[in-house]
Amino acid sequence: MAQEDVFKKLVAHCKEYGFVFQSSEIYDGLAAVYDYGQYGVELKNNIKKYWWDSMVLLNDNVVGLDSAIFMHPTVWKASGHVDAFNDPLIDNKDSKKRYRADVLIEDLMAKFDAKMDKEVEKAAKRFGDSFDEAMFRETNPRVQENLKKKEEIHSRFVKALHDNDLAELKKIIEDYDVVCPISGTKNWTDVRQFNLMFSTEMGSTADGALKVFLRPETAQGIFVNFLNVQKTGRMKIPFGIAQIGKAFRNEIVARQFIFRMREFEQMEMQFFVAPGEELKWFEKWKEVRMKWHQSLGMGEHKYRFHDHDKLAHYANAATDIEFEMPFGFKEVEGIHSRTDFDLTQHQEYSGRKITYYDPEKGESYVPYVVETSIGVDRMFLSMLAGAYCEEEVEGKDGKKESRVVLKLPPVIAPVKLAVLPLVKKDGLPEMAKEIVNDLKFHFNCQYDEKDSIGKRYRRQDAIGTPFCITIDHQSLEDKTVTIRHRDTMKQERVSISELKGIISEKVSMTELFKNL
């Protein structure tokens, strides 16, 4: 099945099974704004808990913060967002659609990657076990030709970004015949910059109103609270401040479902270090964060690092952790060495001294910062994309039937356990509800007695429930139940008294944290 079709099915699945809804849908929706349904909010909260606990509980030198969305407008002047928070946009005159010029060029380079991968895939099938992929990539003329074209584009692209050369970005698009996906034409406007911040007014009268912004990132709330947290927490460098919160960007080219939205949620940690030690910590946090992602068991091959072609004005090193989405490898987390830019800027604009006295060095300095930043919504999408699976399984009478299953990591699955009485009589529902009432203090449990047991299994598969417990007449006699495992569909008979222990071992974040 084409990856584009998989993505369409995933989006439809999110709506059908209560994960994600279009915001204000009864009014035809609001573009690039989404609501999380009953299962979506559980999955999202579990992702946030996995991140928060791994940051704050597992690190003695990382503490939490919850800063306000509204901040003094000078904060955004100091941070550079007022003057430099822009995207390069280009319009197609025929379709009237607007695109990010840098994304069009990145997609163009991805096409050359796909061509090379296709050649490799064909050769691997032809040569079998004797195939040497590295040698093939180095010697095959078609692969080398596509690689050369990609490298030419990449070189021009990087230079244009560094020089802020918008005309060159348009020329790359024209030179390589990039067409509008809607109209199929190359009738492009010039590239221009567009500021992404939402603004509003705070105050009771028009004359006395103060122009403020909806924050485009959560990091600045941490920087302006650096002294508050450091002093009240008696924190010693190196230390970090973690925060989860909403951010807002007026994305003109919002697309790909919840991957790029106008209202989204971030999980950020700013780690403050002594000057000169930032690159050592940058490498350390790269390693830690990649291990965090891979520990969820979605497959190590699904992740990769991608170093930035152009560094932000405040950074001296930056990389992204990318996940293989149905539409290609895309960023889910950024790790940046932000130098001392942020604290120095706020010191200058506020007139307040923002330094740290280092008792070991006997001197004061403005700390440097290493940032890790995840989009919660992108993380959510990566988990669903990696978990979505369509399978053919053996049904009744040995006939093949299909099932859609979300093979979510059990620790973040919305519902951990479904308890299903085989029939709605003979005391089976009463026993099932007793089990739910006992286990609901430990796990998110669901009781379901409607339809055949097979249909109930399929419903739980579709929302990613790792365990289903079936209560039958034997359960009344010997206090045992059948536990069904989602991924293998294997069933085993266990004592009711063993359920808590069996499930705890698989869904406990504590067990996962031990491997970090």
From TrEMBL:
<keyword id="KW-0963">Cytoplasm</keyword>
<dbReference type="InterPro" id="IPR002314">
    <property type="entry name" value="aa-tRNA-synt_IIb"/>
</dbReference>
<dbReference type="GO" id="GO:0005737">
    <property type="term" value="C:cytoplasm"/>
</dbReference>
<dbReference type="InterPro" id="IPR002315">
    <property type="entry name" value="tRNA-synt_gly"/>
</dbReference>
<dbReference type="GO" id="GO:0006426">
    <property type="term" value="P:glycyl-tRNA aminoacylation"/>
</dbReference>
<comment type="similarity">
    <text>Belongs to the class-II aminoacyl-tRNA synthetase family.</text>
</comment>
<dbReference type="InterPro" id="IPR033731">
    <property type="entry name" value="GlyRS-like_core"/>
</dbReference>
<dbReference type="InterPro" id="IPR022961">
    <property type="entry name" value="Gly_tRNA_ligase_bac"/>
</dbReference>
<comment type="subunit">
    <text>Homodimer.</text>
</comment>
<dbReference type="InterPro" id="IPR006195">
    <property type="entry name" value="aa-tRNA-synth_II"/>
</dbReference>
<dbReference type="Pfam" id="PF03129">
    <property type="entry name" value="HGTP_anticodon"/>
</dbReference>
<keyword id="KW-0067">ATP-binding</keyword>
<feature type="binding site">
    <location>
        <begin position="331"/>
        <end position="332"/>
    </location>
    <ligand>
        <name>ATP</name>
    </ligand>
</feature>
<keyword id="KW-0436">Ligase</keyword>
<keyword id="KW-0030">Aminoacyl-tRNA synthetase</keyword>
<feature type="binding site">
    <location>
        <begin position="259"/>
        <end position="264"/>
    </location>
    <ligand>
        <name>ATP</name>
    </ligand>
</feature>
<feature type="binding site">
    <location>
        <begin position="375"/>
        <end position="378"/>
    </location>
    <ligand>
        <name>ATP</name>
    </ligand>
</feature>
<keyword id="KW-0648">Protein biosynthesis</keyword>
<comment type="function">
    <text>Catalyzes the attachment of glycine to tRNA(Gly).</text>
</comment>
<dbReference type="GO" id="GO:1990742">
    <property type="term" value="C:microvesicle"/>
</dbReference>
<protein>
    <recommendedName>
        <fullName>Glycine--tRNA ligase</fullName>
        <ecNumber>6.1.1.14</ecNumber>
    </recommendedName>
</protein>
<dbReference type="GO" id="GO:0070062">
    <property type="term" value="C:extracellular exosome"/>
</dbReference>
<dbReference type="GO" id="GO:0004820">
    <property type="term" value="F:glycine-tRNA ligase activity"/>
</dbReference>
<feature type="binding site">
    <location>
        <position position="217"/>
    </location>
    <ligand>
        <name>substrate</name>
    </ligand>
</feature>
<feature type="binding site">
    <location>
        <begin position="371"/>
        <end position="375"/>
    </location>
    <ligand>
        <name>substrate</name>
    </ligand>
</feature>
<dbReference type="GO" id="GO:0005524">
    <property type="term" value="F:ATP binding"/>
</dbReference>
<dbReference type="InterPro" id="IPR004154">
    <property type="entry name" value="Anticodon-bd"/>
</dbReference>
<feature type="binding site">
    <location>
        <position position="100"/>
    </location>
    <ligand>
        <name>substrate</name>
    </ligand>
</feature>
<feature type="binding site">
    <location>
        <begin position="249"/>
        <end position="251"/>
    </location>
    <ligand>
        <name>ATP</name>
    </ligand>
</feature>
<dbReference type="GO" id="GO:0004081">
    <property type="term" value="F:bis(5'-nucleosyl)-tetraphosphatase (asymmetrical) activity"/>
</dbReference>
<dbReference type="GO" id="GO:0015966">
    <property type="term" value="P:diadenosine tetraphosphate biosynthetic process"/>
</dbReference>
<keyword id="KW-0547">Nucleotide-binding</keyword>
<dbReference type="InterPro" id="IPR045864">
    <property type="entry name" value="aa-tRNA-synth_II/BPL/LPL"/>
</dbReference>
<dbReference type="InterPro" id="IPR036621">
    <property type="entry name" value="Anticodon-bd_dom_sf"/>
</dbReference>
<feature type="binding site">
    <location>
        <begin position="264"/>
        <end position="268"/>
    </location>
    <ligand>
        <name>substrate</name>
    </ligand>
</feature>
<dbReference type="InterPro" id="IPR027031">
    <property type="entry name" value="Gly-tRNA_synthase/POLG2"/>
</dbReference>
<feature type="domain" description="Aminoacyl-transfer RNA synthetases class-II family profile">
    <location>
        <begin position="197"/>
        <end position="421"/>
    </location>
</feature>
<dbReference type="Pfam" id="PF00587">
    <property type="entry name" value="tRNA-synt_2b"/>
</dbReference>
